[in-house]
């Protein structure tokens, strides 16, 4: 009530700000270590039009006011609640230096707390105002930094230490090295936070010029940060997508609305009982939970949810979790909330993938799901471990779990049962069944961050589908699996359309992506230059796309490498020959061509090679041309490293050629991602179909009559006869559309 009153006072007129401040001061608990809200009439009033004669200081104040007006009050109060939950001594000390007059929580009176125009803090404030409830990490050199509220969150949940220790005269600041970004993002998203990452444009800049920055992406629970993945040669772990969930109530019963931002889909399951909706909440990891105001309207006529036992089970499930209330049309309002959370455009369309409950059995009861171990319960063995081999976890296991919890319609159950029967009689070899998360496919393709490894995996999925279609035994199974795949994805795809799409996409990937059989992309190897140098410079872009698509850039690299080799031979080799031929009595001369890995350069490395008396002997002219090697900032590297102008020019040309080739390869990879965005539906369907196929093949092989079976080369031990009978009976009951009751 106090917060509603304060919000009303703030929105009404700036004259009431002192009164709002006094209310919040009385409201604040005595034991709280946090400072009170600091309202500034200038900062919280709405920006007004300025006249031509207004002072520069007033203009800056009004510009700050654009990001500190009353529209940010609810977000600042949200952060205040988060700060009150901090428990670590170091983070609690940081919260004592916060103020609540801006969305960053910065006190301008502290050191480095200025919010003047042109400062890094002001730049961060602009980014923060676009996503006010996300932790913001800003790239600054070799670190990602956070200030204010965000710094406290990093110290509390990511195990990082504050910059500058706990000195009380500077703003809260924390961060992580660039190499630890993924770990930091995992720690924050695991705690339920969304993170906005701001990158700086790399490359040379003018002296005293501030680097340009941009929002490169976001990391959400269930949706990782993918910026830059197209450049690397490794995969990133993709967690299960976490939906935004909304619950409402009507005369039909409870309704569970689930929205997946990554897939741009939503489903609304109506007519659920209270027990069924609690079951779904316990097995679903969600990003945000919203409760509709219709839950408050019970038969007693009061708005006190859970009174007189009605809604008590659901209230007990939600009361200990973080949730927000919402009103209006449940589906449309929840979609608006999702667009707001993820910063999507208002015109973003979400596809309805709701599966009709008509002709389907009721979902599994909470007690049944617990007793058979579908919901993880201490002391009860998991049924999923008994119906699938050990190497069939992850996506296939999740499909079987959903099948048990939500028995399909008769049509789907009949198709699954027929597919299982056919699988038990095959005599041919089966494919590997490459499984890729549909959410991962969509995220990487839409972000244009699919690397060559992931393209090869996508091609494997398509090739395995076509392999099944060419074999008579597997083709019959494939046609049966089209039915459950259509229900799981919401796409109706005919067999001919599927094969045609697979063929076109697979062929296009093969035209662009290097499949590892080409011999024209070997790493450059030249005499006198360390092999490690060429490997570090070229391994990040060679072997990814076919050379024919970037012939000019590849040829320029080859020519630049030859020119570098010639420069090194002409300027360094005479000195090395001289060093080897001269015998010194004072410890020996040293000279070699070395690779300075940190500086990505090939230089001459030597000691005591300068003659005491110049006698025009071989190598003296080259020694006179040497100069100390310097780094990118113009500082001398060391006493042993030397170079020449000719070698430096050749190095610069080689680096430029490598950069151009790398950019061309990225352009081709991202261009292919753009082409395949029109084929996302086919790719999602193929991926889902193979997941179902692997799940059913694994289940079928688990119940062979032999004591041991080999599944994809891995030995799986048969379960006991009791569990074999129980799990098989349960699975058959699901496939026959019976309600499971134990």
Automatic annotation (TrEMBL):
Single GO biological process annotation from the record: mismatch repair
Record-annotated DNA mismatch repair protein MutS-like N-terminal domain positions: 127-217
Gene3D superfamilies: DNA repair protein MutS, domain I
Molecular function per GO: ATP binding; mismatched DNA binding
Name under which the protein is recorded: DNA mismatch repair protein
Organism encoding this protein: Zea mays
Lineage summary: Eukaryota, Viridiplantae, Streptophyta, Embryophyta, Tracheophyta
């Amino acid at each position: 009530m106090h917060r509603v009153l304060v919000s009303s006072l703030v929105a009404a007129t700036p004259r009431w700000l002192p009164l709002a401040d006094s209310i919040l001061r009385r409201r604040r608990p005595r034991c709280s270590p946090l400072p009170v809200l600091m309202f500034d009439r200038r900062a919280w009033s709405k920006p007004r039009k300025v006249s031509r004669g207004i002072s520069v200081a007033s203009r800056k104040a009004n510009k700050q006011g654009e990001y500190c007006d009353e529209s940010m009050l609810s977000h600042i109060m949200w952060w205040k609640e988060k700060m009150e939950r901090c428990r670590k001594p170091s983070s609690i000390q940081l919260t004592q230096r916060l103020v609540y007059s801006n969305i960053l929580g910065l006190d301008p009176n502290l050191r480095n707390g200025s919010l003047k125009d042109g400062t890094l803090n002001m730049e961060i404030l602009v980014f923060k105002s676009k996503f006010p409830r996300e932790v913001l990490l800003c790239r600054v050199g070799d670190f990602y930094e956070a200030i204010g509220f965000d710094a406290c969150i990093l110290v509390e949940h990511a195990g990082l230490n504050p910059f500058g220790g706990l000195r009380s005269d500077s703003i809260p600041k924390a961060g992580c090295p660039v190499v630890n970004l993924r770990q930091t993002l995992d720690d924050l998203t695991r705690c339920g936070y969304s993170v906005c990452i701001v990158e700086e444009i790399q490359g040379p800049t003018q002296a005293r010029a501030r680097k340009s920055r941009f929002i490169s992406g976001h990391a959400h629970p269930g949706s990782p940060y993918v910026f830059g993945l197209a450049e690397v040669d490794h995969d990133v772990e993709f967690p299960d997508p976490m939906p935004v969930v909304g619950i409402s109530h009507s005369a039909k019963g409870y309704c569970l609305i689930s929205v997946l931002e990554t897939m741009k889909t939503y489903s609304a399951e109506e007519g659920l009982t209270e027990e069924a909706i609690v079951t779904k909440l316990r097995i679903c990891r969600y990003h945000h939970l919203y409760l509709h105001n219709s839950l408050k309207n019970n038969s007693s006529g009061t708005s006190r949810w859970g009174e007189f036992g009605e809604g008590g089970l659901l209230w007990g499930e939600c009361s200990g979790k973080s949730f927000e209330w919402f009103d209006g049309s449940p589906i449309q309002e929840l979609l608006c909330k999702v667009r707001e959370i993820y910063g999507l455009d208002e015109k973003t369309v979400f596809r309805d993938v709701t599966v009709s409950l008509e002709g389907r059995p009721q979902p599994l009861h909470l007690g049944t799901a617990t007793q058979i171990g579908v919901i993880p319960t201490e002391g009860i063995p998991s049924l999923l471990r008994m119906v699938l081999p050990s190497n069939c976890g992850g996506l296939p296991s999740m499909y079987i779990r959903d099948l048990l919890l939500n028995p399909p319609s008769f049509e789907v159950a009949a198709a699954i049962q027929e597919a299982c029967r056919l699988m038990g009689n095959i005599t041919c070899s089966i494919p590997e069944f490459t499984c890729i998360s549909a959410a991962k496919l969509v995220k990487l393709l839409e972000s244009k961050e699919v690397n060559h490894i992931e393209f090869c995996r996508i091609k494997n999925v398509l090739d395995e589908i076509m392999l099944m279609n060419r074999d008579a035994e597997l083709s019959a199974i494939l046609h049966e699996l089209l039915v459950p795949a259509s229900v799981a994805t919401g796409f109706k795809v005919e067999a001919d359309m599927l094969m045609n799409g697979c063929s076109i996409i697979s062929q296009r990937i093969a035209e662009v992506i290097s499949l590892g059989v080409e011999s024209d992309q070997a790493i450059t190897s030249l005499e006198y230059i360390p092999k490690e140098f060429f490997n570090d410079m070229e391994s990040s872009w060679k072997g990814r796309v076919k050379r024919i698509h970037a012939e000019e850039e590849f040829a320029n690299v080859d020519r630049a490498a030859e020119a570098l080799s010639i420069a090194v031979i002409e300027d360094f080799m005479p000195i090395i020959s001289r060093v080897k031929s001269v015998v010194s009595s004072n410890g020996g001369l040293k000279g070699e061509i070395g690779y300075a890995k940190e500086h990505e350069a090939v230089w001459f490395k030597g000691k005591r090679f300068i003659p005491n008396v110049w006698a025009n002997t071989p190598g003296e002219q080259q020694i006179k041309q040497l100069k100390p090697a310097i780094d990118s900032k113009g500082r001398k590297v060391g006493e042993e490293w030397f170079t020449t102008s000719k070698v430096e020019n050749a190095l610069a040309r080689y680096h430029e050629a490598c950069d151009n080739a790398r950019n061309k390869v990225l352009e081709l990879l991202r261009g292919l991602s753009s082409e395949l965005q029109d084929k996302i539906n086919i790719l999602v369907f193929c991926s889902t179909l193979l997941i179902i196929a692997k799940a059913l093949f694994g289940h079928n092989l688990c119940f062979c009559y032999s004591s041991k079976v080999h599944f994809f080369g891995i030995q799986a031990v048969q379960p006991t006869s009791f569990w074999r009978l129980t799990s098989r009976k349960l699975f058959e009951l699901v496939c026959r559309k019976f309600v499971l009751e134990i």
